[in-house]
Amino acid sequence: MLKPCQHCAVTFAIRPRQLCYRCYEDKAVRALYRPKTTNFPKRSRRDRRLARRPTKALPGSEAKLRVFEQRFAQRVQLFHPFDA
Ligand SMILES: [Zn+2]
Q: What is the pTM of this model?
């Protein structure tokens, strides 16, 4: 169902942000109605995939730090549930 434009209310809101075509094309008006949400939320580090394999490197060791560096560069989670 079409709703009236939330700015001018003269015509129907056929553009995003519940604005009519004229209001949406006016950048000053459009800026008044910034969307509260985005369709592309920023992904957090928790959304990253698991590393392909767990490591046997012991916690706190130099080897474990190198594993962290590799995983960081590969943009995967730093910790694996089956790490040593
Ligand atoms: Zn309008």
A: 0.48
The alpha carbon of 4 and the centre of ligand 1 are apart by a number of angstroms equal to 8
Residue 15 Cα distances to 8, 36, 53, angstroms: 13, 16, 48
Domains in the chain: boundaries? 1-39, 43-84
30 by Cβ neighbours in 10 Å (0-12 / 13-18 / 19+) ranks as: middle
Kindly state the average pLDDT of the residues 39-66.
Answer: 88
CA 11 to ligand 1 center in whole angstroms: 6
32 Cα to the center of ligand 1, angstroms: 12
Per-residue pLDDT of 25-36, as tens digits, reads 999 999 999 877
